[in-house]
Amino acid sequence: MRIDSRRFLLTGGASMIGARTAELLLAAGAAEVLLYDNLSFDRPDAAIAALCATGRVRLVQGDVLDLPALTAACAGVDGIYALAGFMSAGIAKNPALGLDVNIRGLLHVLEACRQCGVGRLVFASSSAAYGYGAIGGGLTEAEPFHSAGVPAPPALYGASKVIGEQLCRLYAAQHGLDFVALRYSTVYGERQHYRSTNALYIIEAYDRVARGLPPILYGDGSETKDFVYVGDVARANVLAMEAPVSGEAINISGGRPLTVRFLAETVIAIAGATLAPEYRSAPTTGFRITADAPFYYDNTKARHLLGWSPEVAIEEGIARMIAWRRESVAAEGGAA
Question: What is the pTM of this model?
């Protein structure tokens, strides 16, 4: 589907990914972008205000659990981005609502697509669809879901994304839905929130460094993660709406294993501090998302089907996030 002169709706549109995607849709010539969000997580800020000031973006306050309101908002829309959802930490706090939003909420989006004749859906899936634990190396889209020994919150989150992808396939088979599921690895960048457990390795590390405290690492710091910059994710979203492929699940990732020690040391260096990470034993409360071997998410399929590859190196992305964090704290009258 071409972007130029088309109308798009983004559920979870006020999010960090939603705002950046809307920005790129405008740049590609979209006629109108609707940010559909209940504002329970993300409040309208300067980024959203700037988008709305263009006259081509509207913030529509609504909930994916309200099917009539969602369907009304989707009238006349050409393409939808299903970005709304709970992550592991949110599901841990409120499993009933979290699973309801991730599963029934997506089902409502699919039904709105059917009722309104929406031409294409891009579903924000997750690398959590592979699970965690005893998996290592470069994980491709053929990898099955692993849940043995995984803490309940991330296992439930990953399972909800597996169910979401299958709901998309059901609507494709029964109603001809044209869709692509993008499996994001850990997304980070400007407007970073605290709901992503893995992203805390960056934002929490910086917030501690800004207070003159060392980042805290559990274990020896050798555990690996795969991070992808929010601007690269937004670019993948736009390409996925345009690409002549359907019914595919595609990794959108940094494609590089990064140790948590490297992340902490990079934050310290870019922040201009002289601290060293503090190593601690694993906590006995809460949950951690861990892997037993170094891994990353192979993004070869994205290169072939979407013409996409990550462009922003982790060092540059962290520098941009730190600059945003400093500006936002200064605007609030704090110090960082």
Answer: 0.94
